[in-house]
Specification:
Number of helices: 7
Helix content: 10-25%
Mean pLDDT: 87
Strand content: 25-35%
Order of helices and strands: EHHEEEEEEHEEEHHEEEEEEHEEEH
Structural class: alpha+beta
Low-confidence stretches: 1-46
Length: 320
């Protein structure tokens, strides 16, 4: 599988194809996503999603990706973030994204998140809700970061252009740059082939970092949209490596687990010195219920990969 060099911040395993660029959208006042009844009532003769119009409304390029997912991404290049003494690359999931998946002709489910400062958090939450977008989680992904940051997760259902306007209006209340910088093609100071062998998957370069996405083994259903969610939409564990030089790396990300997997994964990680940051949910309407375990560590990259592999092994261990 070839390594991609450009994709949204919850990395992908296929080459993203950019949709034609559009102009910045304007706020659509009073636009409220429609619920599942509206999705079900949609005529089979309705047109599909106009992704160019969605892109214009959200104000940045969309990437068409695996499983019928279209994603907008922004990076927090406006912030200088230091966590536990390490200056974090924006590629370590410091940014925002909105992933759209068509559920019926012309209707979508949208799942997204945003990295926000304390001053931005309430303003963004208010604007999302004013646009009919659900807040699904607010929590930390790091343990000792400066400036203090929060991660806000959200979901929306219904007409995609209306949702895109609401997301655009909410992010306009932040310092997030309207467009992401171009991806660089510089090689990483990591033995990525060795990391691939240990993790057992092909990682991907993203904004100077190396990402793995490991899909959950279960089918994940959004019970409100009544669709199976593609693994790109919160249904895969994320393992991120930021090179620190001399074969060292910082690792961050999250393991996606069902309830019976939570404690075995924590035990496996802690026995290898991985710091546990938070355990929480990202969604409201998923089945089975999923839990997200955020972690942090620094050290030799291959040794860290072995530690994370031990956590992944618990996701495939037989239930006791």
């Amino acid at each position: 599988m070839a390594t991609r060099v450009h994709h949204p911040c919850r990395g992908r395993v296929t080459m993203a194809v950019a949709v034609l660029a559009g102009a910045l959208g304007l706020l659509c006042s009073g636009c409220t996503p429609e619920g599942p009844a509206d999705i079900e009532a949609a005529s089979v003769h309705s047109p599909g999603v106009n992704w160019t119009a969605v892109q214009q409304a959200i104000g940045t390029e969309l990437a068409a990706e695996d499983g019928g997912v279209h994603t907008a991404e922004w990076l927090r290049t406006d912030l200088h973030v230091v966590n536990a003494g390490i200056t974090e690359s924006p590629g370590m999931e410091l940014g925002a994204e909105a992933s759209f998946h068509e559920t019926s002709p012309g209707k979508v489910v949208v799942i997204g998140e945003a990295t926000l400062t304390e001053d931005e958090l309430s303003k963004v939450a208010d604007r999302l809700q004013q646009g009919g977008v659900e807040i699904t989680a607010i929590h930390k992904h790091l343990q000792a970061e400066s400036p203090r940051l929060w991660w806000l997760h959200y979901a929306a259902y219904g007409e995609p252009v209306h949702i895109a306007h609401a997301v655009h209006a909410a992010l306009a209340a932040t310092g997030i740059p309207a467009r992401r910088p171009s991806e660089t093609h510089s090689p990483l100071a990591l033995d990525t082939a060795a990391l691939d062998r240990v993790i057992g998957a092909k990682g991907e370069i993203e904004h100077g970092t190396y990402h793995f996405h490991v899909p959950v083994t279960q089918k994940v259903t959004d019970t409100r949209a009544r669709v199976t969610l593609p693994y790109l939409m919160e249904a895969s564990s994320l393992l991120m490596f930021q090179p620190l030089g001399a074969g060292r790396a910082a690792v961050n990300g999250d393991f996606v687990m069902t309830a019976d997997q939570v404690n075995p994964v924590i035990k496996a990680l802690r026995s290898r010195g991985i710091t546990i940051i938070e355990l929480h949910n990202h969604m409201l309407h998923e089945q089975p219920r999923l839990f997200y375990l955020h972690f942090w560590a620094t050290g030799q990259a291959t040794a860290l990969a072995h530690s994370l592999r031990a956590g992944l092994d618990q996701l495939h261990a037989p239930s006791t």
